[in-house]
Amino acid sequence: MLLIRRFEERSAQLYVEGKIGGFLHLYIGQEAVGVGAMSLLRPDDYFITSYRDHGYALARGTDPRPLLAELCGKATGISRGKGGSMHFYDVPRGNFGGDGIVGGHLPLAAGMGYGIRLRQTDQVCLCFFGDGAVNEGAFHEALNVSALWDLPVVYIIENNRYGMGTSLDRASSVKDLYQRASAYGMPRRDVNGMDLVAVRNVLGEAIARARTEKRPSLIEAETYRYRGHSMSDPGKYRTKEEVEEMMRYDPIFQFGKRLMEQERFAQAELDAVDKEVLAQIEEAVKFVEESPFPAPESLYEHVYVRSPYINLKAAERDPAWRAAVREDQMPEELPAPAAPVKAGG
What is the pTM of this model? Predict the structure, then answer.
C-alpha cells in the first residue's frame, strides 16, 4: 500500500511539472482494496479495471519503472508509451488493463469468465469499477449473463462516494449498491474498503466461491479517494472537513497501527520501509528520465494483429497493417481445452 501511495504522490508531482500528459487518476486512499484483492490471486488468475488502474498493477507485482515510464509516454513503458495513465497492461501477470469508458470493461470481464468456463480451469477473474458505473447498462448486462452462465467473476465496486463530481446520494436511488445483485440472484456483500484485513476476508470468500462453485459475486468496498476525480478536478463539490474526516481512517495508517499494536513492527521499522519505498520511486524517476520517447515510425505498430482468421483487404493499404509485428500473430491452431479441475482437488 505504501508503494502505491508514494508512486501516486510522485506521479502527481510529475504531472504538475508537465512531464505527464493527458488524464491522471490517482488511487490515493483506496489502496486497501487493490492490495487486499491482489494478495489473494494466483499467478494464473486475471483482473481488469477502469482508468484508475495504477494501484492494481503495483500490487500485482509489476515493476514501478515501466509503469512510471508509461505515464510519461516513454518507449520503455508497460504499454510502450502509447497507453498512458488509463491503459496499463501486463498480460503475463493477468492484467488486462484499464478501460477509459465507464463500465465498458464489465462485459469484457464476463467474456474472460466465459473463456475460463470453456477451458474448464479453476481460474478466476476480478473486475474493478467505481460507483459511477453501476447505473450503466453494461453493469446489468454483465451481471445478468454472469449469473445466468455461472461465470467465475468477482465484480468489485469501489464506492468512493463520487462518480466524478456527482455524489452517490444524487445519482442512485439505492444507496447499498451491493444489493443490486439481488436482481440476478447473485451472492453479494459489502465491506469496509479502508480495512485491508476486512477486504481480504470478504474477497477471499468470493474468490473461493468463484474458483470452486463457478459462481459470480458482487462486492461493494466502501472507500474514499483523497484527491479529485483526476488531476484536473479541484474537488469543490465536497468540503475540506469531509476529506480530513475520512483521512482519519487512512488504510495505511490503520494497518501500520495494527502491526505495531500486535508488536510485529516498531515505528522505526515502518519508517525504514517508507525510506526504501521512496528510494525505489526515485530510481523509477531516474529510469524514466533516461528512457527515450517512442520513435515516430512506431506510431503504426501494434494497431492490428496479423491473424490467420481474418483477411482485411482494405487494411493491407494501411501502413499500420504493414507494421503489424510477427510476434503479435495469433496461433494457427487454438490450444486444446485443459483437463477439468475438480472442486477441492
Answer: 0.88
